[in-house]
Amino acid sequence: MESVTTPKSTAPRTNEAWLRELAGPGEAQDAALAGLRALLRRAARYTLGRSAIHGASLAGPQLEAIADECAQEALMAILDQLGSFGAKSKFTTWAYKFAVNKALTAARRERWKTVSLDALLDDDTAPAWFPGADPNAASPEQTSQQAEVWALVGQVIEAELTPRQRQVLRAIVFEELPLDEVVRHLGSNRNAVYKLVHDARRKLKAGLESRGYAVADILALFGGPG
């Protein structure tokens, strides 16, 4: 009689199994790393495939190569932060977010490779670049209120911020440029750019509050968290 080989279990790993096997030695760790890398690559590839919403257009070998890079970067980050996993969600859900974040960053980076930062950032006139009211707002009244707030934001930006503060606020907060690209363009360093953004946000908040608008109220108007 021919022998019958019993297939290995394909049941999903539990949170405890992921942590134990990723941290342990031998074949179990190798299998866990391979499984996690495949999950991260799928997450990165899916996110990059939808990256048109972030202004990039990725496909073919370029997409595959960037997905591999994102998966590897996410894997390294996860291994560094295994101790911070609190088991409040599935391990795979927690890990998935690392790959998505890496892919979103990569998509933004690819987007700005084809854009002239000189032309983009030389125009610091606020009304020309920050968003307006949401056309899908719940009601005409909400649309009107949003337009009023954006007009006020523009006034504060023009009146209270320096040209360089307007520049970095636009680049990092509104245009979502990668920090390193802004640093390179300005010939500066991370700490200096961080301070510019911090000071710009502080002035914007103070300017809005002095005009009778609380940040929490503005976030509620635009559907953001309070």
How would you sum up this structure, described in words?
Helices cover 67% and strands 0% of the residues. With 226 residues, it is mainly alpha-helical. The chain folds into 2 domains: 99 residues, Rna Polymerase Sigma Factor, Chain: A (Orthogonal Bundle); 103 residues, Winged helix-like DNA-binding domain superfamily/Winged helix DNA-binding domain (Arc Repressor Mutant, subunit A, Orthogonal Bundle). Helix 1 crosses helix 2, helix 2 packs across helix 4 and helix 7 packs across helix 9. The N terminus is likely disordered.
Could you give the order of the helices and strands? HHHHHHHHHH
User: Tell me, what's the shape?
Assistant: elongated
In round numbers, the mean pLDDT is 78
CATH superfamily descriptor of the largest domain: Winged helix-like DNA-binding domain superfamily/Winged helix DNA-binding domain
| Strand residue content | under 5%
By CATH reckoning, the class of the largest domain would read Mainly Alpha
How many domains comprise the coordinates? Answer: 2
Low-confidence stretches: 1-9
Count helical runs.
Answer: 10
Question: Taking Cα atoms only, what radius of gyration do you get, to the nearest Å?
Answer: 23 Å
* Total strands: 0
Rounded to the nearest angstrom, the distance between the terminal CA atoms is 70 Å
Q: Helix- and strand-based class?
A: mainly alpha
Query: Which fold name corresponds to the CATH topology of the largest domain?
Result: Arc Repressor Mutant, subunit A
Give a quick account of the main beta sheet: strands, pairing sense, barrel closure: none
